[in-house]
Amino acid sequence: MMNHMQSDARARLLQRINEVSFAVNDILLYLDTHPCCEEALAFYKEQACQRKKLMTEYARNYGPLTVDDALETDGNTWKWMEQPFPWEKEGGCR
Predict the structure, then answer these.
(1) Distance CA 72, CA 57 (A)
(2) CA–CA separation, 47 vs 6, rounded Å?
(3) Residue 8 contacts residue 56 (beta carbons within 8 Å)
């Protein structure tokens, strides 16, 4: 069971992943209509790299959010199914 500090850290990391993911998705929409914008492309690359780092950090500390990050948890690719999903309350239906 996680203590309150761990729970807060997990929530902050998940919030940061959501923010960066939004930025990645948003800039991809912009690039659909402005494919030659070097500034937008640089921003996309920066945010995509940041998202990958955050997802790796989350996977190593709390378990992967997607199957793509499953290898970040000691190579046990199905471990991601053994944890509560981010939207499930701790001690909920599992």
Answers:
(1) 9
(2) 25
(3) no
For residue 42, how many other CB atoms are within 10 A of its CB? 11
pLDDT tens string 21-79: 999 999 999 999 999 999 999 999 999 999 999 999 998 888 888 877 766 656 555 56
Predicted TM-score (pTM) of this structure: 0.72
How far apart (Å, rounded) are the C-alpha atoms in residues 93 and 84?
9
- Rounded Cα distance, 57 and 39, in Å: 27
Taking the C-alpha atoms of residue 79 and residue 55, their distance in angstroms, rounded to an integer, is 15
pLDDT at 26: 97
State the Cα–Cα distance between residues 24 and 22, nearest whole angstrom. Answer: 5
